Amino acid sequence: MNKAQLIEQVAKKLNTSKAQAANAVEAVIDPIKASLKKGQKVQLVGFGSFSVRKRKARMGRNPKTGEQIKIEAKKVPAFTPGAELKKVVN
Asked: Which of 48, 66, 75, 76 has the most CB atoms less than 10 A away?
């Protein structure tokens, strides 16, 4: 499912227009992004947790030339599913 399909499903569920559903979806996504940008963890009980993890610098290899390159350290978003979501999937 992509974002457009999610918006369509929210519109159907709320019996509203796609524009209003898009606003609702953005109203959820934007604060999550803002919190992650600040390095904060976002927990949605029954769904899961969004967090920021630090990746260490490491050596990699250019697949085209085989040359070794240094990959810089960086922060990456991460998602850990909650017990209820795991239960639904299995």
From this structure: 48
